[in-house]
């Protein structure tokens, strides 16, 4: 999966529109035979019932990895909050936030611990301010 992200960056370079990287990644995943769903729609669930709200993941790979793409000057708290919201709702094994805008691709990986209902950094520490991040992203809309 990470190899596909690096290949897209190497091929396309920095500073393009997010949609260009999204299509490049789609082609790279196809060529690599990595199963994925692009712009995967989902409805949050409340007490076992599907809600009307609809969200779209940039990619759901291998059924358990959310990949959110950005092409921005720097990743912000709001970008992380978006991924953390999706992870909280979908409960995947892994969430990857990717920024293609810079000279070198920026990749942040997070893991979801279902037992503890926590999002973890790669070093195993829990995201302590995830609720602040959730509030931040929802207040900007």
Overall description:
The chain has helices at residues 2-12, 18-31, 77-90, 130-139; strands at residues 36-42, 45-46, 49-50, 55-61, 65-70, 94-99, 106-113, 118-121. The chain has one domain (2-139). It is built from 4 helices and 8 strands; from the N terminus they run ααβββββαβββα. It is of the alpha+beta class and 141 residues long.
What does the secondary structure layout of this molecule look like, with pairings?
Layout (H helix, E strand, L loop, with lengths): L1 H11 L5 H14 L4 E7 L2 E2 L2 E2 L4 E7 L3 E6 L6 H14 L3 E6 L6 E8 L4 E4 L8 H10 L2
Parallel strand pairs: 5-6
Antiparallel strand pairs: 1-4, 2-3, 4-5, 6-7, 7-8
Q: State mean pLDDT (0 to 100 scale).
A: 90
Q: Provide the spatial order of strands within the biggest beta sheet.
A: 1-4-5-6-7-8
- Helix content range: 25-40%
- Find the count of extended strands (DSSP E, 2+ residues): 8
Order of helices and strands: HHEEEEEHEEEH
Beta-strand portion reads 25-35%
Radius of gyration: 15 Å
Low-confidence stretches: 133-141
Instruction: Measure the end-to-end span.
Output: 32 Å
- Look at the helices and sheets and give the structural class: alpha+beta
Domains, number: 1
Categorize the overall geometry: globular
The total of helices stands at 4
- Give the biggest sheet: 6 strands, mixed
